[in-house]
Amino acid sequence: MNKGLRSIIDVTDSLMKNDVSGAKEIVDTHYPHRSISYNKRKLSAFEKLSLFIRDGFIDRYTGDQLIFPNVLRLISFNLTTSFPYHTNWKMSECHIAYWEFIPTCDHIVPIAKDGSDSYENLVTTSMKNNLLKSNSLIAEIGFSIHEKGNLENWNGLIDWYKSYIQDRSIEFFDDSMKRWHNALIRYEKENGEI
């Protein structure tokens, strides 16, 4: 039986006997709450993009290919009703591709389980898999760490994005699209073209 479940059952037995101090001792000894205090940093679009590029636009939990965010946004601008976008990603109003293919950053070992908030503990994953994993350890949900991708084989459709916008105005970009666009420009300025 799961250790946590065993502790909860023992606690309920103690409470049934009105033994609150015994229940407290069981929790404190066998299933203690771990209060974690940390200052979680908020990664900029540039820092996130750098991580996505480091990982080759690959979901490190599944090995699936992911897409530079502005690519899907441009599809939505052109196919508004067929490929809808919602600012809060409301599933009933947003194409599922946003959940399946937009990369995000995740802590391999969650901060809630004493993981560090360091670059080495971060990987690229899809929004869908980030939601599935939540605060679990990868072994708890059957995930594993896959190899980083090779940008020569897959770069999240950045080549398409750069080609598509080359002779087009980006004045219609909202703040989010501008952040991703500017992050890409900065990345290539500092590191060379992708």
TrEMBL record:
Pfam families: HNH_4. Transmembrane segments: none annotated. This is HNH endonuclease. Keywords: Endonuclease, Hydrolase, Nuclease. GO terms for molecular function: endonuclease activity. Residues 106-136 form the HNH nuclease domain. The keyword Nuclease applies. It comes from Leptospira alstonii serovar Pingchang str. 80-412. Gene3D superfamilies: 1.10.30.50.
